Amino acid sequence: MAQPKPLERFEFEETDEGYLLTVAGAGGEPVALEVTPDQMDAIIDALNEVLGADDDFDDED
Fold it and tell me: Rounded distance, CA 3 to CA 5, Å?
């Protein structure tokens, strides 16, 4: 397994087919990934699980 690097770039944009996700580690070349809507839902669900989606977020206006 490759040694982890700090995240340097994270971008996503909507396309006709779903999403384009671009990520890169520090000093590395960006990797562009085509992501389907179902895959994006799975990514969001995984993030919510790790970050505690049930937590209340405070609005700071």
Answer: 7
Q: What percent of the chain has pLDDT over 90?
A: 77
According to the model, what pLDDT value does residue 9 have? 96
CA–CA dist 15, 43 (Å, integer): 17
pTM listed for this prediction: 0.71
d(CA 33, CA 9): 13
C-alpha to C-alpha distance for 31 and 16, rounded to whole angstroms: 19
Using the structure block, give the residue that is written with the tokens 């085509």. Answer: 34
Q: Which residues of 7-38 are buried (b: 16+ CB within 10 A; e: fewer)?
A: eeeeeeeeeeeebebeebbeeeeeeeeebeee
